[in-house]
Amino acid sequence: MSESPVILITGGGGFVGSRFAEMIFLTGFGRARVGVRNWARAARAARFPIEIVLCDVLNREQLAEAMKDVTAVVHCAVGDTPVIVEGTRNVLDAAAQARVARVIHISTAEVYGCHVSGRIDETWPCDPTGNTYAAAKIQAEHLVWEYSSRGLPVTIFRPSIVYGPWSEVWTAALAKCLQSGGWAQYEGCADGTCNLIYVDDLVAAALTSIHDDNAAGQAFNIGGPDTVSWNEYFERLNTAMGRPPLDVLSTSRTRAESMVRNVFRGASRLVLDRYGEGLMRIYERGGAIATAMKRAKSWLNTRPSPKEFADLYNRKAIYDWSKAQRLLGWQPAVDLDQGLRQSVDWLKYAGVLN
Questions:
Q1: Rounded distance between C-alpha atoms, residue 125 and residue 123, angstroms
Q2: Beta strand 193-194 pairing with 228-229
Q3: Tens place of pLDDT per residue across the chain (354 aa)
Q4: Looking at the domain assignment, is residue 212 inside a domain?
Q5: N or C: which end of the chain has fewer CB within 10 A?
Q6: CB 19 within 8 A of CB 205
Q7: In the beta sheet, which residues pair with residue 105?
Q8: Would you say the C-alpha torsion 135, 138, 140, 143 has a positive or negative sign?
Q9: Is residue 106 domain-shared with residue 155, that is, in the same domain?
Q10: Dihedrals phi, psi of 302, to nearest 5 degrees
């Protein structure tokens, strides 16, 4: 490895990819080369003097150009199934052609399935359970191991719930739900383990592995230092935002509201399929009906669904990251209190909080 490695980041305009670029630059770890699907995705990285290149993972010519003189690749690009599967194949092929010294593949703990429980380590089978995203990630991992068997040095990281500044799903979107007043603590329905990891800890683990020969050909779970339930995460983020305590809904009330939401969403789809164009014209004109439509949409979007309760919020699994600690000497540095403070600071900066 050279003293100043050139590190290509695919999906460099996304939440995780952008943070890789920032930390590589800010720590002087190496030279970041940020690969973006289009220039509109470059806004965050462009705040720094970082090299930015067009690198759609479905475009082999762009990939080959982006790989020139690259030491390592951090593959963060996500999207639909073709992007995840064929995009990963293209990245691996281009990396092999360019004789890249290491490919870091950012996968997900969802590859273990949504019905697991107990302590899950890297020996647990990857089980497609109907989740399209997880199934695509499993296919992508199969490709990574295939190229590994051909001699390409690869390392897989399987993070759990990645949160922090710029996180749309687990920080900004949840904050909006909490602000709406429609979110709650769900007794008996969100007591599963929320395996949180602050984004900087994921980035640190992956960067640590680039120079470590022990990491080649390995997969690592990555998680945070705190073991909390989803209900506890909801309440602690809510408190960090300075909001009054959440209501506690009983199991029966939670299930009833969740089923109503499911029925209402299904009925809404049927109505939109039949009357979509006419409803859109009404919506655009404004008035009382448009206001009612907006309120209905907000109600749907700020409450959990039965599937979320069944597949995630009740899942009692802990993703064991002791292998990363043992082989890489890695330890998460950001506890939940610190992570929430930094997340809320960003929420205020981004104008998400009222």
A1: 6
A2: antiparallel
A3: 446 899 999 999 999 999 999 999 999 999 999 999 999 999 999 999 999 999 999 999 999 999 999 999 999 999 999 999 999 999 999 999 999 999 999 999 999 999 999 999 999 999 888 789 999 999 999 999 999 999 999 999 999 999 999 999 999 999 999 999 989 999 999 999 999 999 999 999 999 999 999 999 999 999 999 999 999 999 999 999 999 999 999 887 776 666 655 654 554 455 445 545 654 565 556 665 545 445 545 545 667 888 889 899 999 999 999 999 999 999 999 999 999 999 999 999 999 997
A4: no
A5: C
A6: no
A7: 75, 156
A8: negative
A9: yes
A10: -115, 25
Range of the domain at 60: 6-159
Say if CB 167 and CB 339 are below 8 A apart. Answer: no
DSSP 174: H
Same domain, 153 and 177: no
202 is a domain residue? no
Inter-CA distances, 291 with 296, 297, 298, Å? 9, 10, 11
Neighbours of 34 (CB within 10 A): 30
**Number of domains within the chain:** 2
Q: Is 150 helix (H, G, I), strand (E, B) or coil?
A: coil
Distance from C-alpha of 91 to C-alpha of 57, rounded to nearest angstrom: 7
**Alpha-carbon span 54 to 188, nearest angstrom:** 47
Packing angle, helices 230-240 and 336-349, rounded to 10:
50
Reduced DSSP (H G I as helix, E B as strand, rest coil) percent helix, strand, coil of the chain, to 5: 50, 15, 35
Amino acid at 253: R
Same domain, yes or no: 301 and 243? yes
Q: How far is CA 14 from the centre of its chain?
A: 9
- Tell me the pTM: 0.89
Is residue 213 situated within a structural domain?
no
